[in-house]
Amino acid sequence: MPRPVHPQRRFASLAIIALSVVQILLTQPAFASATLTWPNLLALGPCQASLQACIDEAAPGDTVQIGIDDLFVTDRYTTVNENLAINKSLTLRGAPGIDAIFTAGHGITITPPFVSLVSYSVAVENITLDRGSIVVNDATFSSTFRVENVRFNDVPSDQVAIDMLSTFGSSSNFQVLRNVIRTKPHGATSTVGIRVNPQALNASITVSGNRVDAMRGGLQQAIVIVSAATGPITVSNNTIEGRRFLAGIYLGQPVSTGAANAWVINNSISGQHSDAGSGYSAITLELHNADAQVINNTAVYGSRGISFNPVSPSVSGVLANNIVAFNSITGLMFSAGYAGLSNRNNLVFGNTANFGFVPGAGTLVTDPLLISRGYPRPTDLSPAINGGSDSALAAIGFDPFDVDGQPRVLLGTVDIGAYEAGYGITAVHETNADNIAGNFTSLSSLGDRALVPSAELVVTALHSAGESTALAQNLGVWQPVGAGNLPLAIFHENPSPVMHSGRRIAVTVPGFGLSGFLHLSKVGNIFSQYTQLSDSALNGHPAAIAVATHNYLVTGPYHDYAIGLEYSGTSWYLRNEDNVVDMQPGRSFNIVIAPALSDNAFRVVASGGTGEIPVAHPLLDDNACAAPIVGRVANPDASSPPLNTTAFSLDYRAGSDGAPGRWFVLAEGDGAPVSFPNGAAFNVILDGEQANRCRADDTIFADSFD
Asked: What is the pLDDT of residues 553-592, one digit of tens each?
């Protein structure tokens, strides 16, 4: 809601406001679904009252987005002091760049009415709840409910963050995707992160890509699914970490049940705790009639690893490629009756006991050599690397990404566990008196890994206060002591501004899974200010995400121009953004390309001449030590994308009042404040291992969790 107005922002152009009113009116389709923005501060049209009133005014199928709450203080923070009820097909979301924060204790209930043969589609996305919950009560016909990219700062005591329920006779499609749930100690006895409980004849359930964080406690069960329905159940790519939570993933079927396909794939659970009398584990299955595929999970540093609890089952399937290690009561437990479930290529080590487990082919019993309790990814020397079964992946149609969002099967054979080795090397390089000279800074390693002389670095400046002149410079990379030799260097293309100590630069090196190449401009691929790129990951792929950095090699020449990428026809081109100077032959550029369809690669776009563009992503939010790589791009989805010569850096800002800390692409200028052209776009590439590893290390030290 409106807050005190900053004096310097009290004045606005009435002409701009009037034009905005006209634009809003013109964009409302007469007979199609519409997007309504709340709060409407223009005294014309819908959504001028409460958010609930806006939802009530919306037609079925509309989108209601939460936008700015003040015409004069157009910041990104908007609060919602309401409990909401949704009873129609609707998408509720925060507008791009807006932190829509529901204040403490407020939540959302979704209860569409039953109408014979009528189905609904309801989605909630891109909002934050502070000790609130989202509840779905479904009694309809074949409806879809989706909760995606929602943050929960805490879960109310003895409540459920995301609770999806259905009654007998419905046929629900429940989707819980890429949410972040954090809990705090509050004396709760039954707090749950995600619960899906269809009492239907048929149901489709997908719980994927979520992060449940209980590093300080306050959680009993992370993901609970109890289903008597036929249909697929997929629980994949979830991360559950913390201390003293009772259950990580629980899948249960009542005795009278239809046949189900239960897939538990690529989940990482660390820190589960239960006493000797409990039946809960990091992964617990109580199935009666199912095909169960439990593949590539990591269940470590808890009381119990993976348990198939006593029932009278008719269960087939496979337990394969899982790391089950360092559990104080039980590692693997197979109750009698699960004879139809085979096992192979699991790594089982350091557990106090295993019950009913007869090791199958490819079982390893050696130390998995994990990075840490808070981040149980195998180190580079782990026996889990290349130790899995590719045929187990084939049985589920092959999941292309691990729990970090990195590609699977990078080194020949799938790894054991939820994490896959490979990808590239990414870290933040910091300048100091020992590695700077003139306009460059040298590096022979990146993070804890040594570089090779041929490493094709791609770099992005991170913002430093008081460095406006330096941050306005174009950056390149260099081999200062000759080809085949270290160190490498990052330099200002303009040799005059010197490199100061205390600068931070995000650096990535392509590797397995993060492809890249060295491009040379030459006669035949130069057209005006463009040079045509050629690579199988780029050609014919307008949705490809890539970033470029000029490579001076040993002898240059300099290329002191803003550069970006543009797609035309069936090819990508690298261009000088000034549209004045033609591309010259003999210029080399390092190109890094993200894996296709990766959630860790995306575009952000400037609107309205802003000087900062938020970069929202679960791996980046509240993660100051991340190292995203960003580069200019002409947005292929825009009809006439602008040229963009504005210098930029990446800046992290801590969160407050329930909003997450967030990264921004920041316009830089040596002098007066600058803005990006309207529609200026940037490609963003994240290294999931780097982002999760550094965040886990920070959390461990902050909480004394060892």
From this structure: 999 999 999 999 999 999 999 999 998 899 999 999 999 9
DSSP secondary structure letters along 497-561: SPPPTT-EEEEEE-BTBBEEEEEE--TTTEETTEEE---TTTTT-TT--EEEEEE-TTT-----S
Give 217-249 pLDDT, tens digit per residue. 888 999 999 988 888 999 999 999 988 899 999
pLDDT at 602 over 60: yes
> DSSP readout, 222-274?
EEEEE--SBEEEEEES-EEEEEEESEEEEEE--SS---EEEEEES-EEEEE--
Instruction: Note the pLDDT of residue 17.
Output: 30
| Cα-Cα end-to-end distance for the chain | 42
Concatenated DSSP letters for 98-147? -EEEEPTT--EEE-PPP-TT---EEEEES-EEES--EEEEE-SSS-EEEE
Pick the more confident residue, 657 or 29.
Answer: 657
Give mean pLDDT, residues 246-260.
Answer: 86
DSSP 3-state of 598: coil
Determine the Cα–Cα distance for residues 115 and 103; give it in Å rounded to an integer. 33
> Is the Cβ–Cβ distance between 174 and 110 less than 8 Å?
no
Helix (H, G, I), strand (E, B) or coil at 615: strand
Q: How far apart (Å, rounded) are the C-alpha atoms in residues 54 and 65?
A: 10
CB neighbour class for 14 (10 Å; exposed up to 12, middle 13-18, buried from 19): exposed
Burial class (CB in 10 A: 0-12, 13-18, 19+), 444: middle
Residue 500 CB contacts under 8 Å (≥ 6 apart), including other chains: 431, 436, 467, 470
Identify the CA nearest to 164 among candidates 221, 235, 109. 109
User: pTM of the predicted model, to two decimals?
Assistant: 0.91
CB 22, CB 84: distance < 8 Å: no
| Helix/strand/coil percentages in the chain, nearest 5 | 5, 40, 55
Q: Give dist(CA 162, CA 611) in Å, integer.
A: 36
CA distances from residue 198 to 167, 169, 173, 252, 587 in whole angstroms, order as listed: 7, 10, 10, 11, 60
Neighbours of 11 (CB within 10 A): 8
Per-residue pLDDT averaged across 246-261, rounded? 86
What six digits make up the tokens of 68?
A: 């700015």
